[in-house]
Amino acid sequence: AAKQRGNNSFQYYTGKMQQKVLRRMELENIIHQTIEKEGFQVYYQPRVTSSSGQIVGMEALLRLPYNGGFISPAEFIPVAEETGLILSLGAWVLRTACRQNKQWQLAGYPPLRVSVNLSPNQFNQKDLLLQIKETLAETELAACWLELEITEGAFMNKAVATQKTFADIKSLGIHISIDDFGTGYSSLSYLKRFDIDCLKIDKSFVDEIGQDSKDSSIAHAIISMGKSLHMLLVAEGVEKQEQLEFLQKHKCDQIQGYIFSRPLPPAEFEKLLQKQVRFA
Ligand code: C2E
Ligand code: MG
Ligand code: MG
Ligand code: MG
Questions:
Q1: Which of 56, 78, 141, 210 could hold 98 in an S-S bridge, CB 3.0 to 4.6 Å?
Q2: What ipTM was predicted for this assembly?
Q3: Which residue has the CA at smallest separation from atom 22 of ligand 1?
Q4: Which bound ligand lies closest to the C-alpha atom of 57?
């Protein structure tokens, strides 16, 4: 019986592993097919001032439609990274977001900054700078209306190279923000060394605000530290009124979250802009 049990649990684990490998292959196929039929979409989530809820920017977020719904980026982005497909996908997101932003500016809306996520592989590409320059030239978007979001993992153990890449990006006039700040395994010394405009406080710290414990101390500490280094502070994943109030009280500059709006397809986002223009 013992032997049988052993066998079963072995089969159980291989089964799980097999499922994972199969799902990964399936996702890779889906990504390829979606690229083929030009089915990927970009949604936009507003970034607003915490003081007045004014839209000051938006984050471009990649969407993979499938079977009437969407496959989560949390699931497909890692596969896109492992397969290298993220390089062409990421270039496409960058171009799409810049083009869309320019279009809204030409339509007469107050200019906004669009932020685009760069995966570690993209960030470490040799021709990154050239690609960005070409995209800005092609879409005719002024560099100051573009921001790149990078996670700490992208430059772990690469201080010298990263400092150079950041300086290159900054020399074009593009903003840089650190995404999911506080969750990466990295030293804080880079905050002084690298030219960073903005820290995006990870949702996990925002989630702790307003709970019974005094665990909002991390969010508070990040705000204080970022401010003292003259960075812009953005809180991600703000859902509750009490979180917003805490962030207002501690002078977090901007928020992004469902409390204001979910990520929206371009037409829906434009409706928000219209409302804002009308009621401004
Ligand atoms: P991220 O860059 O940290 O993006 C923020 C995520 O939080 C988005 O998830 C957004 O929809 C979600 N979010 C915003 N506000 C709230 C809120 O109030 N509550 C909750 N529960 N969630 C909120 P999404 O769109 O699923 O993207 C997940 C991650 O996938 C992103 O995290 C980013 O790391 C990655 N990703 C998305 N698009 C791209 C892309 O074009 N390129 C790359 N490299 N990564 C991307
Ligand atoms: Mg982001
Ligand atoms: Mg984030
Ligand atoms: Mg993230």
A1: 141
A2: 0.98
A3: 237
A4: 2
